[in-house]
């Protein structure tokens, strides 16, 4: 009986109050990744990710609104191949020395019920800001047994045209303009 009451209280705390008010969540860097995929000479897909990121998300599920701000440390790029990482950081591509961060600000949330289905906003990269819309392929909130707080997150994706941010190295011969961006995010309620 006590276990049932505790479970009910935790569920009510996690889901009952969060539906009625805006809640702020801090990005969990251990469960949040921004990665990319791009083809190489039309033969294989190159993948990489950014290991350092920080930010927050505010969601009001009742009002169907939200705001996300995520900053990525561009020097944390990791493809698993150190020489390639060095080239990606160079002036040819991300020019990390003069453009050390990228920032996504999402201020237009779309919902289906309580689930986020898309987040639209802007991506600032290479000193240029362009509109971006991330489609949710998965979204969920749960009461974490580890941190004893609500955690919300999901998988988001979009396709970018890298030339919009001035990244034109090896276009179109070695790599196309289209880059698939995948964002896996989990954030802990504050």
Explained architecture:
The protein has a single domain (2-189), classed as Lipocalin (Beta Barrel). It has 2 helices and 11 strands, in the order αββββββαβββββ. The chain starts with a helix and ends with a strand. An 8-stranded antiparallel beta barrel has the order 1-4-5-7-8-9-10-11. It is elongated. The model is unreliable at 1-19 (pLDDT under 50). It has helices at residues 2-16, 82-89, and strands at residues 23-27, 33-40, 44-50, 53-60, 65-73, 77-78, 101-112, 115-125, 128-143, 150-161, 178-189. It is mainly β and 190 residues long. The protein is 12% helix and 54% strand.
Which key phrases capture this entry?
190 residues; mainly beta; Lipocalin; eight-stranded antiparallel β-barrel; elongated; disordered N terminus
Task: Describe the structure in brief.
The chain is mainly beta and 190 residues long. The chain is 12% helix and 54% strand. It has 2 helices and 11 strands.
**Range of strand content:** over 45%
Q: End-to-end span in angstroms? A: 30 Å
H/I helix tally = 2
Computed Rg: 19 Å
Portion of residues within helices: 10-25%
Element-by-element helix/strand order:
HEEEEEEHEEEEE
Shape: elongated
Mean pLDDT across every amino acid position: 90
Find the count of extended strands (DSSP E, 2+ residues).
11
CATH topology: Lipocalin
Query: Mind telling me the CATH class?
Result: Mainly Beta
CATH homologous superfamily title: Lipid/polyisoprenoid-binding, YceI-like
Q: In terms of structural class, how would the helical and strand content be classed?
A: mainly beta
Return the domain count: 1
- Order of strands across the biggest sheet? 1-4-5-7-8-9-10-11
Poorly predicted ranges: 1-19
**CATH architecture assignment name:** Beta Barrel
Instruction: Report on the biggest sheet.
Output: 8 strands, antiparallel, barrel
């Amino acid at each position: 009986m006590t276990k049932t009451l505790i479970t009910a209280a935790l569920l009510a705390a996690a889901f009952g109050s969060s539906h009625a008010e805006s809640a702020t969540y801090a990005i969990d860097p251990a469960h949040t990744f921004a990665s990319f995929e791009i083809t190489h000479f039309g033969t294989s897909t190159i993948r990489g990710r950014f290991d350092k990121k920080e930010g927050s998300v505010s969601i009001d599920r009742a009002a169907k609104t939200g705001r996300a701000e995520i900053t990525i440390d561009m020097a944390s790029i990791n493809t698993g191949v150190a020489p390639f990482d060095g080239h990606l950081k160079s002036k040819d591509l991300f020019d990390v020395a003069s453009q050390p961060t990228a920032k996504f600000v999402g201020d237009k949330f779309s919902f289906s019920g309580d689930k986020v289905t898309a987040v639209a906003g802007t991506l600032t990269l290479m000193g240029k800001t362009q509109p971006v819309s991330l489609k949710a392929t998965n979204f969920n909130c749960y009461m974490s047994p580890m941190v004893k707080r609500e955690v919300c997150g999901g998988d988001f994706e979009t396709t970018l045209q890298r030339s919009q941010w001035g990244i034109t190295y090896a276009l179109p011969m070695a790599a196309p303009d289209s880059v698939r961006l995948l964002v896996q995010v989990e954030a802990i309620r504050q």
